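Entry — protein

Goal — fold tokens:
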Amino acid sequence: MAETYRFDVIVIGAGPAGIACACKLAKAGKKTLVIDRAKQVGGKNLTGGRVYTYALELVEPGLHKKAALERPVVREQVMVLSDTSAMSVDYYNPELAEDIPQSYTVLRGNFDDWFAAYAEQQGAVLVDGIRVDDLVIENGQVVGIRAGDDVVYADTVVAADGVNSLVAQQAGLRNQVSSHSVGVGVKETIALPAAAIERRFNLNPGQGVARTILGGTQGIIGGGFLYTNKESVSLGVVLNPDSVAEKGLRLYDVFQEFKMHPALQALLGDGETIEYGAHLVPEAGWRGVPQRLYRPGLVVVGDAAGFVVNTGTILRGIDLAILSGIAAAQAVITAAAPEAVGPAYQKELERLNVIPTMRLYAGWPEITQNPRMASTYPTMMNAMAGQMFTVSGDVPEKINTAMLRIAKQHVGIKNLLADGWKGFRAI
């Protein structure tokens, strides 16, 4: 027999955006329901990843000290791979771990479990293992959701159901995900003793590394990442699906070849794989954000709204998801009437710098999606480094002549100038 229920707000999806929203709403006394499709809250979630703690502090001051975090990041690294060699930039600053803002590596399973439990402590009701089949719409306004035979009514529904948001699609706010607007992320978590991590990555006890990786993907558009956790390392790639199809390769094989690069094997060595997964990632940046983020009775947050920044060296998603969840909650709390929530949400996104940040990085996908960024430039940069650091006893070639020769061999001066100009305009 069908049942009906009523809440002030229904949040669909228990990722960082949905849970941050639920925390704020519950603390404000709003009767809040969070529905997640996974059998265990967060079970569908996967990320690199790291959390910038300023976002948690906006949920509640001091919250990051209670959170299930791994290591504070004190080394920011960029690694450029050719087929056999690697060149790395390492920025070390222990002050990165001290005051807000700071960032921590994170394992999403642990983090999401903790965040969901925290939301429940604030008064939110969490239900997992439930699929939302339809939105309930009356007179053009979303008034609830339908799950099987059950109907749940609410003044506001928050779509926090991830990059392929079926709720946003049903609401008419976005189309189906296209292959050129997303990347496919593949990640492996590899167990290593804490002492081995600290020795291999040149860390003091408890400190962490965040590394982005260019190249090593067999010419497929995309890149990699590596994060050190307390007793494991998270290694992954995010690849363009069209580029994978054009190469005729399997994702697993591409990742396995990437993982076996000698520069990475020296770090991973005898580690044991304890987790493996794949997930879609928004890759279109600002241009992938829907033109409208709300309709009467519904707002879209987090990955469902496309709030992810990827510059190849800066990867941000969890902090923007949390901010958008806070923005949605603030809109519900302050709006004089349900129909005012959507416009208030848009203003809160501006006030919390979500929209300005997305606009700032709007041109970066033109750079990261350039096929030459996947192979040609990483190979060229390694060739230049090899030229600089190889001493044979012969009189070396003049450095500027050698660099020009290598650039001509790999990319050509015309392409180099064109890519440089496009990159300058994009940023």
Summary: Residues 110 and 160 are 19 Å apart (CA to CA).
